[in-house]
Amino acid sequence: MATTTVPYWQPPITIDPVSVACSVEITFGPNCKTYGWVSGCRHIDQVTLIPNVGSVSAPTDSICQFADPEPITYNALPSGADYFEYQWYYQPGITCENINELDFTGWYPIYGANSPTYDPPPGLNQSRIYKCAVKAVDNPCQTNFSWSQGCHIVIVTPNTTATYGTIQQNNQQLCTNANPSLISFSSLPTGGAFVYQWYYQNGIVAAPTGSSTAGWTIINGANNNTYNPPPGLTLSRTYACFLSPINSQTCFVQSIWAGGCSQGYHYR
C-alpha cells in the first residue's frame, strides 16, 4: 500500500490490472483520529504491450519485363494481438532504407491486398519495392497502421530484342578426303552475348530451326562464330550452329539455332 501526503498518486509501471482507492486520515484532536474512504475509485485495466509488427520476407526477386513475380510472405508474422489488419503498398525503385515506421509518403496502397501474403500480378515494366503495414485491431497501444520490418524488392530487367544471325550458305562440292573451307556467319547475332556450338548431321538436310538439337551431333570444341571442318570426309555432311545466351537473366533471348546451314556435298 502506498502512503502519500499529497492528493494524488502516480502508479508504478505495471503489466497487471489494479484498482486504486484512497482513504484519508481525519484528526479531531491530539488523541482522536479516524479514517474514511474517499468516494469512488479508479480501475487500471490490463496494460497491453505494444505489438510486434513482424517482418516481411526480403529476398530480391529478379524477373524479366512483364513476367510474373513470386508471392511475397512474412518470415515472422506480427504478434501481441489477436487480430491484425494488413495493407500492402508499393513504390517504384530498388532501395529500401531508413523508412520511418509511420511515414507513408510516396507509397501507393494496393487495393484489396489485405492479408499476410501478397502475390504481385504479372505485367511489371519497372522495378518495384513492396512493403506491408499492419494495425492491431484489439490493441489500444497501436491505433494506427505502422510498417512491418523489411521490404521485398522486384527487379525488372527490360526485354531484349535479339537476332540470331545467319550462316553463310557456301555449299561445297568435295572430293573424298578433301579439305572443306571455313564456315562463317553472313550476319552475326545481336541483342546479347552468346555461346556458339556447332553441330553436324550426315547427309544433305534442311537447316534446323527452334530449340531442339535432336538428330544432330555436337562437335566438341567448336565454340566460335566460325568453324573449319577437318579434311577427310567420306560422305556428305550438313553443318549448323546452336546459340545460347551467356547471361541467363537476358530476357527474351533464348537458346536457338542460328539461321541457315552449310552443306558439303561429297562426290568421288
Architecture per CATH nomenclature, i.e. the level-2 architecture of the largest domain: Sandwich
Chain-averaged pLDDT: 82
Rg, Å, rounded: 38 Å
What is the number of strand segments?
21
Strand count, sense and closure of the main sheet? 6 strands, mixed
> H/E series, N to C?
EEEEEEEEEEEEEEEEEEEEE
- Oligomeric organization of the protein chains: single chain
Low-confidence stretches: none
- Fourth-tier CATH superfamily name of the largest domain: Immunoglobulins
| Structural domain count | 3
Q: What proportion of the residues is helical, as a percent range?
A: under 10%
Helix/sheet category: mainly beta
- Shape annotation: rod-shaped
Distance, first to last CA: 118 Å
What would a concise description of this structure say?
The protein has strands at residues 18-20, 23-29, 32-37, 42-44, 55-56, 60-64, 74-76, 84-92, 108-109, 128-136, 146-147, 152-157, 166-167, 172-175, 183-187, 194-202, 217-218, 226-227, 237-245, 256-257, 262-267.
